[in-house]
Amino acid sequence: MAVKHLAIIGGTGFDSFGDLKTVRERQVDTPFGACSSMLKTVELGGREVTLLLRHGPRHTIPPHRVNYRANLWALHEIGATHIIGVAAVGGISKAACPEKIILPDQLVDYTYGREHTFFKKDLEQVTHIDFTEPFCHELRSTLLRACAEIGLDVLNGATYGVTQGPRLETAAEVKRMACDGCDVVGMTAMPEASLARELDLCYASCAFCVNWAAGCEDSEKKIDMAEIQKTVQQQILVVRQLLSASAGQLGS
Ligand code: HPA
């Protein structure tokens, strides 16, 4: 078994890498173009962890324009074996309330028009990956142990509905998603999770809820971006703590 190399794809709230000690920084060329940011390897939780900023260093790449293929390819290229995708989400079910950390175990994909597979050209045979369980069991367990270590209340198991964005959803769309079994809504877990699976990478989502999804709190209340930003800024500190503990918990 190869040595475990943890990578983190940071989303909203991860506009910089903070003050972590940098070990290495590199730009990786991929057959699919440029990835969202440099790959920065830092010391986190007693190990080297590689960070990538999904929305770019200045948070200018919206969810539907992220080059997911380049990002996953680059992380695979540098030897990443385990990837935590961090994502701000909206809460749909009662248990997925704002400020909650959520470890989804299922997803429903509502995205469209994104480059979603590596299996497109020069195929020797058609390949269908198994995606029954979209998130890696080992990495979810690692995150759970890390939550226990730092005494963090977490929602273990939720269905993540992935929408196209960049607009937020209508109340009716969220109602439909609730009927589909979605507990949270976000815009980035797909095709990130399935591309990781195509490359045989262990991928888990670490979601944190920053608002009630459209219509879930009060059917006429608009979603306030300033309020979301405030929650993001608070929650990202907790997420960083969790990631550091997870890096320590992953083992060699
Ligand atoms: N919808 C979609 N994506 C999100 C939301 C939301 O309400 N909140 C944070 N990311």
Number of domains: 1
Question: Rounded to an integer, what's the Rg over CA atoms?
Answer: 17 Å
Largest sheet: 11 strands, mixed
Bound molecules: hypoxanthine
- Structural class by helix and strand composition: alpha/beta
- Figure out the total of helices: 5
Q: What CATH architecture would you give? A: 3-Layer(aba) Sandwich
As for the CATH topology, it is Rossmann fold
CATH class reads Alpha Beta
Give the low-pLDDT segments.
none
Shape: globular
Helical content class: 25-40%
Number of extended strands: 11
Mean pLDDT: 94
Could you characterize the architecture of this molecule?
This protein is of the alpha/beta class and 252 residues long. The chain has 5 helices and 11 strands; from the N terminus they run ββββαβββαββαβαβα. It has a single domain (6-114, 131-249), classed as 3-Layer(aba) Sandwich (Rossmann fold), CATH 3.40.50.1580. It is 27% helix and 24% strand. Strands 1, 2, 3, 4, 5, 6, 7, 8, 9, 10 and 11 form an 11-stranded mixed beta sheet that branches. The termini are close together. The structure holds hypoxanthine. The site of hypoxanthine has 12 residues, from strand 5, strand 10 and strand 11.
Could you outline the blueprint of secondary structure elements for this entry?
Elements lengths: L5 E5 L11 E5 L12 E6 L2 E7 L14 H10 L4 E10 L9 E3 L2 E4 L27 H14 L3 E3 L2 E4 L8 H9 L4 E3 L2 H10 L3 E11 L12 H25 L3
Parallel strand pairs: 1-4, 1-5, 5-11, 6-8, 7-9, 9-10
Antiparallel strand pairs: 2-3, 3-4, 5-10, 6-11
Helix pairs in contact: 2-5
